[in-house]
Write a structure and sequence with these properties.
The complex is a heterodimer of chains A (226) and B (200).
Chain A lengths: L1 H18 L5 H9 L4 H17 L12 H9 L4 E3 L1 H11 L2 H25 L1 H4 L22 E3 L7 H15 L5 H5 L9 H7 L5 H8 L14
Parallel strand pairs in A: 1-2
Helix pairs in contact in A: 1-3, 5-8, 6-8, 6-10
Chain B lengths: L3 H13 L3 H19 L6 H18 L9 H19 L9 H8 L14 H19 L2 H12 L4 H8 L3 H23 L8
Helix pairs in contact in B: 1-2, 2-3, 2-4, 3-4, 4-8, 5-6, 6-9, 7-9, 8-9
The chains are: A mainly alpha (226), B mainly alpha (200).
Chain lengths: 226, 200
């Protein structure tokens, strides 16, 4: 008696799964071979009725007309997310293998140039921040006000991380419909970049431009001296 | 052709690169679906909307940890359910089961305001009564069964996806959905007048 009941329960459970398209091929074939009893047909009909009712307008969920506006107001205070590692990984996936080496070299130079721009734009600030001010895993985080940026990364400092950071920085500073808001946000950077900036100052366009107006080691005159 | 899941992933990656508007698109897409799910745990509409908003904010803050191994919506639904549960705990409430008012609503639906004097077709009244019965039966279900059948019938998730949301084996999902259907069917018997109760 108990076995029969268990078999029946299993049969109805299979019916339920069959409704959802979640039976194995073997189970499906077995069930289709047998014609449904009256009770099984009732169960099949009722299970479908339950689904139809749950999806019907009678039980439709209503939302207040100002839900979107209320959420927008609340969401405005959340910082913008920047995840350079993920961005760099996505960029890696999109490029063919044989161009990656060239791309890395090119972006290394471009990132060094951008980093040098940082150094000259925020040079006085660099001296105020030392290694003992931030831990090596410090994440600069702006909280609260709209338009601020949250950098999220545990490994900025690898080449791909710096590339993505530089890329993101230049993207953010480019003219966009939201550039007014973005221009008002504080520029954040990882303090581990300081030693890199100082080591690569010579790649700065400001320095290279200034060097054109100085004397050249091989005796060639600069443009202004001609 | 880009699948819906791929579109979600594209939007998620845009959010992770600093595009907040991409997240607003995801909110518009899933707000009603999440509301349907949450409203089965938090009955008050205003409170349910607050929970939904809180769930979206939590999802946004957790996006740096989202790697795309699971579909965005299964991940979001999990956050939604957990947020609703936490809300109920902080309110000193458990997830709702049966209430006297729910049972009464189903059994005395013909006395509901606005219907007594309305000359509605019998079939329309019957469908309203069935809807009220199903609604009451859903409220009476244990939380795990209610979540499972909601994710299946209303959100249209596969058993695999439901297992991801509920963090349980697929066999458990299959069993919960079946038991939920059986429990609701049992309440429908008097309304439908079927012979389901003579099965065993």
């Amino acid at each position: 008696m108990a076995n029969k009941m268990n078999d029946d329960i299993s049969k109805y459970e299979n019916l339920s799964a069959m409704q959802d398209g979640e039976t194995s091929d073997a189970e499906l074939q077995q069930m289709l071979k047998q014609s449904l009893s009256v009770h099984e047909k009732d169960a099949w009909d009722t299970y479908h009725l339950i689904g139809d009712v749950l999806r019907s307008d009678d039980l439709a969920v209503k939302m207040s007309s100002d839900f979107s506006q209320r959420f927008a107001d609340r969401f405005a205070s959340e910082p913008v997310l920047l995840i350079p590692e993920i961005h760099a990984k996505n960029q890696e996936k999109q490029r063919p293998k044989d161009k990656r080496q060239f791309f890395r070299s090119y972006m290394a130079v471009a990132s060094a140039t951008a980093a040098a721009v940082f150094a000259f734009a925020f040079g006085p600030q660099i001296s105020h921040f030392g290694r003992d001010t931030f831990s090596s895993q410090q994440i600069s985080k702006a909280e609260g006000a709209a338009g601020q940026v949250q950098l999220v990364s545990a490994s900025i400092g690898s080449e791909s991380g710096e590339v993505a950071l530089a890329d993101e920085t230049s993207r953010l500073s480019a003219s966009t419909p939201d550039s007014e808001a973005q221009n008002q946000m504080d520029m954040l950077r990882d303090p581990r970049i300081d030693s890199y900036l100082i080591a690569h100052q010579r790649f700065s366009p400001a320095i290279s431009n200034a060097a054109q107006y100085g004397s050249r080691p091989n005796g060639n005159k600069s443009a202004t001296e001609k | 052709m880009t699948t819906e899941r791929e579109i979600d992933q594209i939007l998620v990656e845009r959010v992770q690169r600093g595009d907040k508007k991409a997240f607003e698109l995801l909110v518009s897409k899933y707000q009603r679906k999440l509301m349907r799910l949450v409203s089965r745990l938090v009955y008050d509409q205003a409170e349910a909307e607050d929970v939904v908003q809180e769930a979206f904010i939590k999802a946004y803050r957790a996006l740096p940890n989202f790697r795309g191994d699971a579909a965005f919506y299964t991940w979001l639904y999990r956050i939604g359910i957990n947020t609703a549960k936490n809300y109920l705990v902080t309110q000193g409430r458990r997830a709702p089961t049966s209430t006297e008012s729910d049972v009464e609503e189903a059994e005395t639906f013909s006395d509901a305001d606005g219907l007594r004097d309305i000359n509605t077709p019998e079939s329309l009244l019957a469908s309203k009564q069935i809807a009220a019965t199903v609604n009451a039966a859903m409220s009476a279900l244990p939380e795990e069964l209610r979540n499972a059948i909601t994710l299946r019938e209303i959100e249209g998730l596969s058993y695999d996806e439901i297992a991801e949301v509920m963090l349980c084996p697929i066999g458990t999902v299959r069993s919960r959905i079946f038991r939920a259907r059986e429990a609701i069917a049992e309440r429908l018997r008097p309304v439908l007048g079927t012979t389901l109760d003579n099965r065993w």
